[in-house]
Amino acid sequence: MQRYKVTLMYDGTAFAGFQRQPNKRTVEGVLTKVVNKMAKNPTPAIGVYGSGRTDAGVHALAQVVHFDLPFNIPAESMRKGLNSLLPMDMEVTHVDLVAADFHARYDVSGKRYLYRMDLGEFRNPFKRNYTGHWKFPIDLAKINTALQDLVGEHDYTSFVASGAQTRTFVRTIYEATCHVDQHNNELIFEFYGNGFMYNQIRIMVGVLVEIGSGTRPVHDVLRLYQVKDRKQAQRTAPAAGLYLKHVYYMGEDPQHPTKLPPHQR
């Protein structure tokens, strides 16, 4: 068996998320069908395993999956073959032949996400699938001050939606930044950490734009750590603005080389 590590991008607009679901179009479902078609539909079917889930409407610039084939196809031929069969809203950017013990999910050491928030006065119909929207004045200095409260190891209970399948809400955020893209009139957030939970980034962005608009104290994040109450974070930014930017594996980032512990996956 040859194991393949595949990096792909996708427009999440028309997907019901990454994870396969009955009678719904998902990234995992579409990719699994294509991989099995390339392998001439073997029995049992070939499984595809992702680095993690993305929700409905969330995009990926570099999602990572792995699968095994009972025969060897060169990496570049695999990339071209997959792209010839995938729909227009998915594209494989890289394929690696990897060791049999590589796992796209369990070997992750960190993930980087970005969030785009349109600042126009009116909601732009041409951006609605690719950005959030915030029409109120923003103080970028307040947001960047609040971002530093998010960095480090914390219990993010207040920032996780109900339904999160995890045994602990403790995670570590290594970097959190925000800047204004003047050309597109957007706030661009980036978060890099050892793992993120269900809706965590979208909830954090919701809190941050309220801080930037002055409706929350600058250091309200510290209070939210203490209360451990999702209802007090309130707002969840739209899925359309969220992008999985990069998945890190052992050896790719010497500053943060440790895999996410099993109880935090």
UniProtKB/TrEMBL annotation:
InterPro entries: PsdUridine_synth_cat_dom_sf (IPR020103), PsdUridine_synth_TruA (IPR001406), PsdUridine_synth_TruA_a/b_dom (IPR020097), PsdUridine_synth_TruA_C (IPR020095), TruA/RsuA/RluB/E/F_N (IPR020094). The active site is at residue 55. GO terms for biological process: tRNA pseudouridine synthesis. Gene3D superfamilies: Pseudouridine synthase I, catalytic domain, C-terminal subdomain (3.30.70.660), Pseudouridine synthase I, catalytic domain, N-terminal subdomain (3.30.70.580). It is an enzyme of class 5 (isomerase). Substrate binds at residue 113. It catalyses: uridine(38/39/40) in tRNA = pseudouridine(38/39/40) in tRNA. Keywords: Isomerase, tRNA processing. It comes from the Bacteria. Its EC number is 5.4.99.12. Formation of pseudouridine at positions 38, 39 and 40 in the anticodon stem and loop of transfer RNAs. Homodimer. This is tRNA pseudouridine synthase A. It comes from Levilactobacillus suantsaii.
